Amino acid sequence: MAAAEGQGTGKYVVVYACLLVITAAQFFIGYQHISGSQLVVRMLTFGAIETVLVVFFWMNLASEKKNLIQFIVFFTLFVLAAMNYIWTDSFRLLLFRLTGFGPS
Amino acid sequence: MSEAHLTMGAHTPGPMEAPPFAVPSKKLAMWLFIMSDVMTFAACIAAYAFVRNATPDWPRPFHGGTITNVAIMTVVMLTSGLTMLFAVKASRAADKAGAFRWMIITALAGAIFTLLHIRDWMGMISQGAGISQNPWGPPAFGASFYSITGFSLLHMGVGTIALFVVAIRYKGGRYNADDIELFSLFWQFVGLVWLFIVPAVYLMNVAP
To answer: Do A79 and B42 touch (CB under 8 A)?
Structure first.
């Protein structure tokens, strides 16, 4: 029991160290002179890794029932994916502003 | 035997129905709340991303001082997430004093984070950045900045107060280890949201 308690705490500290390293990498990338799209991809990649670490190990979703994990993960990802409908309209608006042409 | 008697007999309460997903109802409710909060934050960040992408002259006003402040806030937030987990561990091990101590440490970290957040806002306000205007151009910058960070600040401020209450009630015997674990879910979620706000709002707008 005591060993299990120790292991659990050790796991949390390892995740904490990983989160610190990933966050430091994000701050480093923030100061790099790279294009906007590359910046977004890198930040989102690091954000996704952080999410997996926090949700599965700090929020202990990994130790829950499989059907609860499926429900939470699929439902949340579906809604987050559905929100990406904004991009086409956002780029269209950007094009209008850059070219000076607008919708009639 | 009367009809009423038969009807009563047909509705004799049976054993309790099993909770969905075989998790306690309170925990399921917290997960559902977190999922709904994910949608709210995601909608805010999606709206910000829409405007940010569609505005060619989007300002990049964050200098070293602000970024240093945000870095400190992030370390405080991550550390508070770890101390909250120590509180959960201690409560599971029936170490009441230890759990209370870790919760108070976590709440103090939350208070520090909130104060640093307010300091960041004061810095922005002193530079003339408001909700509807700012010295750098597009007015949508201030609106999106204050709405996203304000929503996070609200969660953190209220969460800190709630954590003090939970700690005191746990010490008084009104809450148990399950309640501490539930609050930990909320606390970790707020920390996770901050890890998305930092790159989206601050690091992608660092002054060249």
So the answer is: yes
At B202 the three-state DSSP class reads: helix
> For residue A49, what are the CA distances in angstroms to A18, A40, A45, B51, B155?
10, 14, 6, 26, 23
**CA–CA separation, B73 vs A27, rounded Å?**
13
User: Do A104 and A92 fall within a single domain?
Assistant: yes
Domain of A49 in residue numbering reads as: 1-63
Cα angle B51-B131-B147, degrees, rounded to a multiple of 5: 65
Residue B5 has pLDDT above 70, yes or no: no
Query: What is the pLDDT at residue B12?
Result: 57
- Name the residue range of residue B156's domain: 24-50+71-205
How confident is the model over B125-166, as pLDDT tens digits? 999 998 888 888 888 899 999 999 999 999 999 999 999 999
Per CB-CB distance under 8 Å, the chain B contacts of A35 are none
Measured distance CA(B128)–CA(B202) in Å, rounded: 17
The contacts of residue A67 (CB under 8 Å, 6+ apart) are B21, B22
Q: HSE of B150 in the Cβ direction (CA atoms, 13 Å)? A: 11
A5 chain-B contacts, CB cut-off 8 A: 89, 92-93
Tokens of B190: 């707020």
Number of domain units in chain B = 1
Burial of A48 (0-12, 13-18, 19+ CB in 10 A): exposed
Buried b (16+ CB within 10 A) or exposed e, B176-205: ebeebbbbbbbbbbbbbbbbbbbbbbbbbb
Give this complex's ipTM: 0.87
> Best residue in A18, A27, A64 to probe B by mutation, most B CBs within 10 Å?
A27
